[in-house]
Each structure stands twice: as structure tokens, then as C-alpha cells.
Write a structure and sequence with these properties.
seven-stranded mixed β-sheet, Enoyl-CoA_hydra/iso, 2 domains, 271 residues, delta(3)-delta(2)-enoyl-CoA isomerase activity, alpha/beta, 10 strands
């Protein structure tokens, strides 16, 4: 394998302004780990195109590479990922089943240890993907981990919720999901959401101390899959989530519109 390798196409960023594809994912490697870096401006929101490149990279590493730890991170200094591009998600047929849940499942079933280097904000789906990794290292100086769906009335469907409940327990998941808490790196470390505060140097130290010990174990991924089998099963069971979410939002809009009209009439009747 010759590195770096780019997915889906090797095009200089300046050419993106001319309407050509931007390199979204690149993979480099040293003797102990693969470094998968992505770059989908402005804030690494997950779209079908972005996830397709991500999946291509993971599949290439898994099928063509030697056993090494997988490290994933963003090339954008501010955002690990700002979550789903919701409008694109609900308008793309099969988005959840064929793209987003497949990405979660691919990371959960990856054959070797995985580390998410959260270099900036990890919101919503970005937080979920980070949680799918075995280990998390977070920038100590900037960025939050946050599930902010409750703040704007968005639902969390089974695969989105079970990754937190199974990984971190129901008590902490309440703070993550129902309260939408914005975790700083210190809070995330204290809560057990991340393993280390730092950057690539700390990732490399973590690999040397812990993660790299299990790269050649043929049972490593099987044990992970048994530990997280509920989450993996959820990613296979909800291929209609775009329709479900759209209906729920439409129902909510109708409810609040009707409630607003009722309140308006009530106010007018008291004037």
C-alpha cells in the first residue's frame, strides 16, 4: 500500500472552486496506526457523499491493509463533526440504512482497535460516531461533545440512543441526551466519555500503552461486537428512519401551529 490514499478522488482543493470533486478522506499510516482524516467544509456534516468516501476508506484499510490501530480525525480545526446534514439526510433515499447506520456499524465491527481524535466540536451524529470508537482523545483547549437534539425538539431513534446507553449507562445518557449537556474535555474525561485529553501525541501514547496490544488478537473485534451487540442490531433494524423522522417533525409542526393558534385566540378573548 502506498500512502497517502485519498477517497473518493485525488483532486487539488483549488479545483473544487471549478465544480470538481474535493478530496474528502485521506489515509496515511506508520508502523502502528492508520490515520484517517476527513475534510468536508464547512463543518463536516454527514452527507451521503461524505459517508460514502469514509466507508470506501474503511473498506480499503480493512481488506488491503495489515493489522494496525485505526485513528480517525478531522482536518478542520474547529469541527470533528457538526452532525447530520438533516435536510440532505431525509431527502436521500436509504440514507440511514445505507449510509449513516452503516458507518456506525462498520466502525463497531472494525477488526482492529479504533481511536477517535476529537480535535474540535463533536455534535449530535459526530458525537455518536466518536462513541462508536474504542477510545476517544479530545482537544483539551477547545470544542464540546454534545447531543443538542433536545434543544430543538429532534428525536433520538434506537441506534442513536443505544450507543450512549450501552457505552456509558443510563444515568450518564440522561445527561447526554435528555439534558443536552455540552461536555468540555475535562468534563468528558471526568465522566468517562473520553480516555485522554490531548492531540496526536497523546493518541500515539495511548496506542503504545493500551490499544496497540490488541491489534493482532483475532478475537478483539468479536468481543467488541458481543459487548455492543444491541447497538449493532439497532443499526440493522431501522431502515425507515427518514420517513419516521419526517412524519414526527410534521406532526410536531402541526401540533405547535394549532397550539399557537389556540393561545392567540385565548389572548384575544381576554383583551
Amino acid at each position: 500500500m502506498s500512502f497517502p490514499i485519498t477517497f473518493p478522488a485525488a483532486v487539488h482543493p483549488n479545483k473544487a472552486e471549478q465544480g470538481q470533486d474535493w478530496v474528502i478522506v485521506s489515509v496515511s499510516a506508520d508502523d502502528s496506526y492508520y490515520l484517517l482524516e476527513y475534510n468536508s467544509p464547512p463543518d463536516n456534516r454527514y452527507t451521503a457523499k461524505f459517508i460514502a468516501a469514509y466507508l470506501q476508506a474503511l473498506d480499503y484499510i480493512r481488506t488491503q491493509g495489515e493489522p494496525r490501530v485505526l485513528v480517525t480525525t478531522s482536518r478542520l480545526p474547529k469541527f470533528f463533526s457538526n452532525g447530520l446534514d438533516f435536510e440532505a439526510a431525509i431527502s436521500t433515499p436509504g440514507f440511514f440504512d445505507e449510509y449513516y447506520y452503516r458507518l456506525m456499524r462498520t466502525i463497531l465491527e472494525f477488526p482492529w482497535p479504533t481511536v477517535a481524535l476529537v480535535n474540535g466540536h463533536g455534535f449530535a451524529a459526530g458525537f455518536m460516531v466518536a462513541a462508536c470508537h474504542d477510545y476517544r482523545v479530545m482537544n483539551p483547549d477547545k470544542g464540546f461533545l454534545c447531543m443538542n437534539e433536545v434543544a430543538f425538539g429532534a428525536d433520538l431513534l434506537p441506534p442513536m440512543m443505544s450507543i450512549f446507553r450501552v457505552k456509558f449507562g443510563s444515568q450518564l445518557s440522561r445527561k447526554i441526551a435528555q439534558e443536552g449537556h455540552r461536555f468540555t474535555s475535562k468534563e468528558a474525561l471526568d465522566a468517562g466519555i473520553i480516555d485522554v485529553r490531548g492531540g496526536l501525541a497523546e493518541v500515539e501514547a495511548l496506542i503504545k500503552a493500551v490499544a496497540g496490544k490488541y491489534v493482532k488478537s483475532p478475537s478483539y473485534s468479536h468481543i467488541r461486537q458481543e459487548l455492543l451487540k444491541e447497538v449493532i442490531a439497532d443499526t440493522r433494524s431501522f431502515d425507515k428512519d427518514a420517513e419516521i423522522l419526517t412524519k414526527r417533525y410534521n406532526d410536531q409542526d402541526a401540533f405547535y401551529s394549532k397550539r399557537g393558534q389556540e393561545l392567540e385566540q385565548l389572548v384575544k378573548s381576554k383583551l
